[in-house]
Amino acid sequence: MIKREAGFSLVELMITMVVFVFFIAAASQVFTGLLTQFKQQSKIAETNIEGIVGLEILRQDIQNAGYGLPWNLSGAGYTEIVSESVTPWIDRDFNDGPPDNPARGTDVAGASNPPGAFRSGNGYGLNGSDVLVIKAINVARNATCEKWTTLMASPFTSPYNPRKWTPALTPPQGEDLAPNDRVIVLRPGTTDTNGRTLVVNGANFSTTFSGITSSPWPPTDPAETRLVYGVADSNVASLRMPFNRADFYVRRPTTNMPQRCAPSNNIGILYKGTVNHADGLLTELPLLDCVADMRVDFWLDTDGDGDIDWSPTVAPFSPTDDISGLTARQIRDQVKEVRVYIVAHEGQRDINYDFSMGGTKEFLSATEVLGTNSRTINFVNLKTQIGNLNYKYYRWKLYTIVVKPNNLR
């Protein structure tokens, strides 16, 4: 018998191909949507991690402001930042020492303008954002600045047991200062006039850790204990200032701007710039991407009653964003709380998202409340600065950091 063989007809093949194409198209749409959502969620998660890590650095540095700062320099001079080309503003405006000290005044005679724990400026950064400057021993990016110890004299003296100057080591031993670490020595004192006085040797206000046992660094009274703070490691030949300084600001880099950020020249990066002792320039650490604005408020107690003031119409304002005229002592006495507001977007562009809420939402705002008083702060106008067709496809967020500094006194 002849076996009959039959295949698919052309019509059947065409129908099958059409069904297959429709299936593939539908599957690809679902896959594309899932991929887009995955990328968006991964970028949001990346932003959130950046916010946690980067802004925690900022929060800790605000909390540490004033740590180890001398209150009286014993007439010693020092130099802070020089003219830094990477930032478009004048960084020396925030110097307490020369060059170009803005002459804020000094606390006591011969103190040579001791450093203020905070300095700030309005309208310096991108989109008129603020610049926050923090001065403390432990805001640098080295392990030495996190170490300290005490220096005291042996209470026994005799021809057979001469007086020995002994640094009291801080446990654990692995955290001890190294012999060539650069350190400063402070004499605690009992009043603001002689409190936290910088010990100097002629024009020098620092020495190596191994050098603190020689005069004049140790105390002359066995009952006195002096404080030794590590400032920089042995790679620094000498200190330009008896503390460390970190500047926080928003600027747009000329290269390597993250591609997920909104395509606008008014979007930048929040940086921490640490002043180098070697040359007075900044070493930058990016903290948060896609930033449009940063504002800093200082909540003050100007009348010394222990409570934060509120004076929205009569100077000095409190809260205030301008402490440029305060001396180091006034900052120690008056600053009770610091608030930092940062506007940034999380994730990347999402055409299925509309931040503008029908075109009515163009900026973020924050309401500050103190007792029965309140005020509203409006931040950068996103529609104007970022662009009408760009800003609404991004998830804008207001980060708020509230810190009560605990190292000012």
**Strand pairing plus helix content: what structural class?**
alpha+beta
Q: H/E element string?
A: HEEEEEEEEEEEHEEEHE
Rg calc: 29 Å
What's the rounded overall pLDDT mean?
81
Task: Describe this protein's structure.
The chain is an alpha+beta fold. Helices cover 16% and strands 26% of the residues. It is built from 3 helices and 15 strands. The strands form 3 sheets. It has a 7-stranded antiparallel sheet with strand order 1-2-9-10-11-12-15. Strands 3, 4, 5, 6, 7 and 8 form a 6-stranded antiparallel sheet that branches. A two-stranded antiparallel ribbon has the order 13-14. The longest helix is centred in the N-terminal third of the chain and has 55 residues, at 10-64. Residues 105-111, 156-165 and 168-174 have low confidence and may be disordered.
Topology of helices and strands:
Layout lengths: L9 H55 L53 E4 L9 E6 L11 E6 L11 E4 L13 E6 L9 E2 L8 E2 L16 E8 L11 E8 L16 E8 L6 E19 L27 H7 E12 L18 E6 L2 E6 L3 H5 L8 E9 L6
Antiparallel strand pairs: 1-2, 2-9, 3-4, 3-8, 5-6, 5-7, 5-8, 9-10, 10-11, 11-12, 12-15, 13-14
Short structural summary:
The chain has helices spanning 10-64, 328-334, 382-386; strands spanning 118-121, 131-136, 148-153, 165-168, 182-187, 197-198, 207-208, 225-232, 244-251, 268-275, 282-300, 335-346, 365-370, 373-378, 395-403.
